Amino acid sequence: MRIIYNAQLALDNGFAAGFVVTDGDEIKQVTEGMPDSHLLSVCDSRVDAQGAMLLPGVIDTHVHFREPGLTHKASIASESRAAVAGGVTSYIDMPNVVPPTVTIEALKDKWDRAASDSMANYSFYIGATASNTDMLVYDIDYTRVPGVKVFLGSSTGGMLVDDAAVLRRIFAEVPALIAVHSEYEAMIRRNMEHARARYGEDIPVSMHPMIRSEEACYECTRRAVELARDLGTRLHVLHLTTARELELLDGLDEQDAKLITAEACVGHLWFCDEDYNRLGTRIKVNPAIKTADDRNALRLAVKSGLIDVVSTDHAPHTLQEKSQKYLKSPSGMPLAQFSLVTMLELADEGWFKHHTVVERMCHAPASLFGIANRGFLRPGYMADMVLVEDVPQGWTIGDDDVMSSCQWTPLIGATMHHRVARTWVNGVEVYPNKPSFTPAQPLRFTRNA
């Protein structure tokens, strides 16, 4: 048995001094106060947390680990290693890889790869296309798959779904969560034409939030929400970026609010359009990072609970790829390794409480997706845990800290006042010590059972 004591435990409703006992891959005891000498003596592994925070492992419900087909950028092995270094013990990966994850065979291939290489627990969305709706409705085991990813804005791999009849059938008949990338493609194309007319092929990156505009996001999210309300769809809106979209959520009645949920990503909570001058295409993401007012509205929505979960949209590209001019630079940035400490930094700044970070990054992902026996420090739950120490003097993220395969992050140079000290996945310490075997497991989704 292992005991972690003298810790600030992130319990269901707040922090309390206490200890946790684990046996194998399971949490056996969660108790406030200090353990007695007998309990300490019978545990063969003892960790004195020295007042550090002990949290349930982060569940990142939105990542792109680039495998298969894009492994020059990253891999399941490299990005899960970076993730656990940041306290992420479970993740859900997106389908826009090569070939795209739009078939049962492609899903099986990713499960097999993760089973041998992943250091964090894993699952994978199935992607919607214009022609695979029958499979989505009848053939997918949604106790193993969290839901269907639908691109309502441009994407790779033929996964743009812009046929109204197909979209309506997906929303009406798929017996699981529908997660949407919500940008109105026609508006984006029109805005791009205007930008090309003005700048030619040398469009400045500062135009990105005007091309992938507030209007394009709002109009697409409005349509998705209206369709979901009409059909009773379990809708999850990914990476919200605008204050206007939050108004759509704020206007939901109690019943619709249970069916329609939303995510914010760490990059949209940390950066704003003022950062394009400093970071350029390194913060080019879709949907675009927008104004400081939009960013601050998202932060307040995290505090209030209008935003249900916080994830990363972790999406590595090589620095060579990202350093190209705007039109050629791909969208996406790596954030999983530093997502937890970044959110705790925002809590230090007073935007929300430290426990709100736990609620949005651990508790709510488990509850919202119905992830079995994870996301909380509770007896009988899996021993996915992260120990986070305070660094009062601060530490600065540097190049040498980055474990992602691409070896960069837009957070380089940022000063943080918390640091991940240790991470356990299913009771096995995976950071800073790499185990001799892979302890990760596939996630199970009870909500879809």
Count of extended strands = 17
The termini sit apart by 32 Å
Instruction: Return the CATH class of the largest domain.
Output: Alpha Beta
Category by helix and strand content: alpha/beta
Q: What does this entry show, briefly?
A:
The chain has 449 residues and is an alpha/beta fold. The chain is 33% helix and 23% strand.
Explain this structure to me?
With 449 residues, this protein is α/β, with parallel strands linked by helices. It has two domains: 2-54 and 379-435, Roll (Urease, subunit C, domain 1); 57-369, Metal-dependent hydrolases (TIM Barrel), CATH 3.20.20. The protein is built from 16 helices and 17 strands. Strands 1, 2, 3, 4, 5, 15, 16 and 17 form an eight-stranded mixed sheet that branches. A six-stranded parallel sheet has the order 9-10-11-12-13-14. It has a three-stranded parallel sheet with strand order 6-7-8. The protein is globular and about 75 Å long. The model has no long low-confidence stretch (mean pLDDT 96).
Write the layout of secondary structure elements.
Blueprint: E1 2-11, E2 14-23, E3 26-32, H1 37-42, E4 45-48, E5 53-56, E6 58-63, H2 76-85, E7 88-93, H3 104-117, E8 121-124, E9 126-127, H4 133-138, E10 147-151, H5 164-173, E11 177-181, H6 185-199, H7 208-211, H8 214-231, E12 235-237, H9 243-250, H10 254-259, E13 260-265, H11 266-270, H12 276-279, H13 292-304, E14 309-311, H14 319-322, H15 339-348, H16 354-369, E15 385-396, E16 415-425, E17 428-431
Parallel strand pairs: 1-4, 1-5, 6-7, 7-8, 9-10, 10-11, 11-12, 12-13, 13-14
Antiparallel strand pairs: 1-2, 2-3, 5-15, 15-16, 16-17
Helix pairs in contact: 15-16
